[in-house]
Amino acid sequence: MPLVALTGGIASGKSTIARRLAEHGAVIVDADQIVRDVQQPDSPVLAAIRTEFGDGMLRPDGSLDRAALGGRVFGDADAVARLNAIVHPAVRAESARRFAQAFAADPAAVVVYDVPLLVEARVDDPWQLIIVAYAPEDVRRRRLVDLRGMSEAAAAARLSSQVPDEARLAIADVVIDTAGSLDDTERQVDELWQGLAERIAARAAG
């Protein structure tokens, strides 16, 4: 019952890797989706966000205004810390529930936690393998501009707000280089999948 973490910076190709692992049969648990789920209308997390940051964080229909919340906390380390103190415990509990659910359904499952903030929040969890999606910063900036329509300034701001690449690479058991073609990225994932048991055993052996 391998529990694997997959992380990477914005526009690093992490979703491509997760999709390919799913095609091989891995169960993907998406941290971003869990964040959205625990912030649904009438949830304790959303109520706490409203109390902490004000009614302006909610849309008229009672759902979270993500743009307003992002604008409120972006660049404010104290506000980010207060938000994380609300959201992270709920995400941790829900992710643990989903891991257990996946292993109950199939004890031999390979469960992959697709988690952007691994370094910041979950690096000490008992992962059996940590996969890092990597592309140089200039490649990721170009993807944000060309594929996501961001301005150069907005792309630079998003990249600079994240932990440095070195911090992710330092915790990696496996690095998937996504700077090349899609075929090249998928080939690396295929090779990882074929040798997954050996990789996990090697990490356990220290």
UniProtKB/TrEMBL annotation:
UniProt GO MF annotations: kinase activity
Chief location of this protein within or outside the cell: cytoplasm
UniProt keyword Kinase, yes or no: yes
One of the Pfam families matching this protein, by short name: CoaE
Binding-site positions, ATP: 11-16
EC number: 2.7.1.24
Enzyme class, UniProt record, top EC level: transferase
Annotated SUPFAM superfamilies: P-loop containing nucleoside triphosphate hydrolases (SSF52540)
Classification via NCBIfam families: dephospho-CoA kinase (TIGR00152), PRK03333.1 (NF002879)
HAMAP family: Dephospho_CoA_kinase
Purpose of the protein: Catalyzes the phosphorylation of the 3'-hydroxyl group of dephosphocoenzyme A to form coenzyme A.
Protein name: Dephospho-CoA kinase
Source species: Microbacterium pumilum
Lineage: Bacteria, Bacillati, Actinomycetota, Actinomycetes, Micrococcales
Gene: coaE
